Amino acid sequence: MTPAQPLLPPADWRDFLALTKPRVMTLVVFTGLCGMLAAPVPVHPVIGFAAILCIALGAGAAGALNQWYEADLDAAMRRTAQRPLPAGRMERQSALHFGVGLGAFSVIFMLFAVNMAAAAILAASILFYVLVYTVWLKRRTPQNIVIGGAAGAFPPLIGWAAATGEVALLPVLLFALVFLWTPPHFWALALFVKTDYANAGVPMLPVVAGERTTRRQIGLYTLPMAAAAVAPWPLGLTGAIYGVTALATTAIFGGMAYVVATRTTDPAGDAMRPEKRLFKYSILYLFLIFGALVADRWYA
Ligand code: HEM
Ligand SMILES: CC(C)=CCC/C(C)=C/CC/C(C)=C/COP(=O)(O)OP(=O)(O)O
């Protein structure tokens, strides 16, 4: 008979918050909010608040279920070893119950307080992140983040659907923008935390295909991403505030991606490696471009 495992002390609220990956969630919520505010239909503030709350809770639930499933990987990586499960501050079961409960609540609340379309897309994005990305693809293929990254591209569609009850060309282009943005965003980071993924046995592109291929792929994905970013203006879906901001911020993104794509060695003395600069800018970029979308709708 094996001795009973000692029970962990009850986890702190901060540990439950950490399960929701709150820093990544800020951008997920922001793109959802902007998708909602860019819709041609004004939303009642209470409905709008409920929709954004549901996106935040749903994304948080997805983050918790991701951490429940991959506590072993998180334990093997320096960047993630201090999360509540690998650090031993929480039982795995607690993370599972928290994730399932929060996810179910977010979808049901969205259904009754907002509408069916928004609830259905929210449910799809939670399931996509947890089942398609985390369970199915992450440990199997370096294309994991290309396909699985679709989960993080849904929020602008959810926001739009919350306002209008349907989807349209503009939110589909916003989905495409975030979808095509994800590989440069993530692979830029993966270039400088490559050893972490190698240690954990996760087949991320720099580990499996090497640095040169990863750099080239970052450059390649940036081209259709730029097209998706700028397209709403010539298509007449937005005005010049969005168009000019998209052109300028995307040109900067393109320039940085070009440097990353064509760099072969890590030059000594470079204070910040180009891929680190691109990763940081990728986050600012989405904030700026989605912010411009709302400014364009409201002030044009
Ligand atoms: C499968 C796709 C993605 C992967 C694998 C990925 C991975 C990562 C990783 C590993 C980090 C760094 C550290 C961390 O905070 O855990 C990060 C940071 C970040 N990601 Fe992503 N990401 C993806 C998609 C997205 C999407 C769709 C968004 C939002 C639209 C996003 C927003 C952010 C933000 C805001 C940060 C900075 C967090 C901070 O300040 O610490 N990511 N991402
Ligand atoms: C609306 C909704 C349900 C959205 C959820 C989708 C979401 C939060 C997408 C962002 C993707 C993300 C955080 C990937 C992190 O990868 P990882 O899990 O491999 O990162 P890690 O190594 O830090 O655990």
Write up what this structure looks like.
- This protein starts with 12 loop residues before the first helix and ends with a helix.
- The model has no long low-confidence stretch (mean pLDDT 94).
- Helix content is 72%, strand content 0%.
- The protein folds into two domains: 13-166, UbiA prenyltransferase (Tetracycline Repressor, domain 2, Orthogonal Bundle), CATH 1.10.357.140; 168-300.
- The relative contact order is 0.11.
- The protein has helices at 13-19, 22-37, 45-69, 71-76, 92-113, 116-137, 144-148, 155-164, 169-192, 194-200, 205-208, 211-230, 240-262, 274-299.
- Farnesyl diphosphate (FPP) binds at residues 21, 24, 28, 55, 58-59, 62-63, 66, 80, 122, 125-126, 129, 138, 151-152, 154-155.
SSE diagram, text form:
Elements: H1 13-19, H2 22-37, H3 45-69, H4 71-76, H5 92-113, H6 116-137, H7 144-148, H8 155-164, H9 169-192, H10 194-200, H11 205-208, H12 211-230, H13 240-262, H14 274-299
Helix pairs in contact: 1-3, 2-3, 2-8, 2-14, 3-5, 3-6, 3-8, 5-6, 6-8, 8-9, 9-12, 9-14, 12-13, 13-14
The structure holds protoporphyrin IX containing FE and farnesyl diphosphate.
Farnesyl diphosphate binds next to helix 2, helix 3 and helix 6.
GO molecular function: protoheme IX farnesyltransferase activity
Function: Converts heme B (protoheme IX) to heme O by substitution of the vinyl group on carbon 2 of heme B porphyrin ring with a hydroxyethyl farnesyl side group.
Transmembrane segments: 24-41, 47-69, 95-112, 118-136, 157-180, 218-235, 241-261, 282-299
